[in-house]
Amino acid sequence: MKPVSELLKQRDGTLWHARPDDTVFQALQLLAEYEVGALMVMDRGKLVGVLSERDYTRKLVPSGQSAQDARVADLMTREVISVTPAQHFRDCVRLMDSHGIRHLPVVDGGRVLGVISVRDLLREAVVHHEKVMREVECERMTVFNSAA
Question: How many of the other CB atoms lie within 10 Å of CB of 42?
């Protein structure tokens, strides 16, 4: 399986983000516009949190607070789980599973390079599975032909 650096190359390189003082409504507009499930929350170039659709539905909606009044800082997840470009597919899967998250920022030396989503990992798993199945089928045919 590929390292995270290879998975990032398959993405367009855009890092969708919000600021802590943005309203949740502004962040929701960005989520909808860019068709993503999470935004990195950046403050002066530093990753300070992640705001996901889950944060909105699980924190803001039950509180009854308005998305126009609430700030991203009020809802964002502050304890960000991240990976480095050198880590591998399996590391991402383990982290997402153990922490119940769907997005992993890729950070190198304090700089956010991108985000890996569970969808990216699923796509990679399908490609890997197809490759393995082709190799098994090829091996099977080789064994079959040499026995004949």
Answer: 16
Tell me which amino acid residue 47 is: L
CATH number at residue 92: 3.10.580.10
- Domain interval for residue 104: 4-147
Helix (H, G, I), strand (E, B) or coil at 115: strand
Q: Work out how many domains the chain is built from and give that number.
A: 1
**Each residue's pLDDT tens digit, 4-24:** 888 888 777 778 999 999 999
Tokens of residue 106, six digits:
């890729």
CA dihedral (18, 19, 24, 26) in degrees, to 10, reads -60
pTM for the whole structure: 0.82
Sheet with 46-52: list strands edge to edge.
17-18, 38-43, 46-52
The predicted pLDDT at position 147 comes to 67
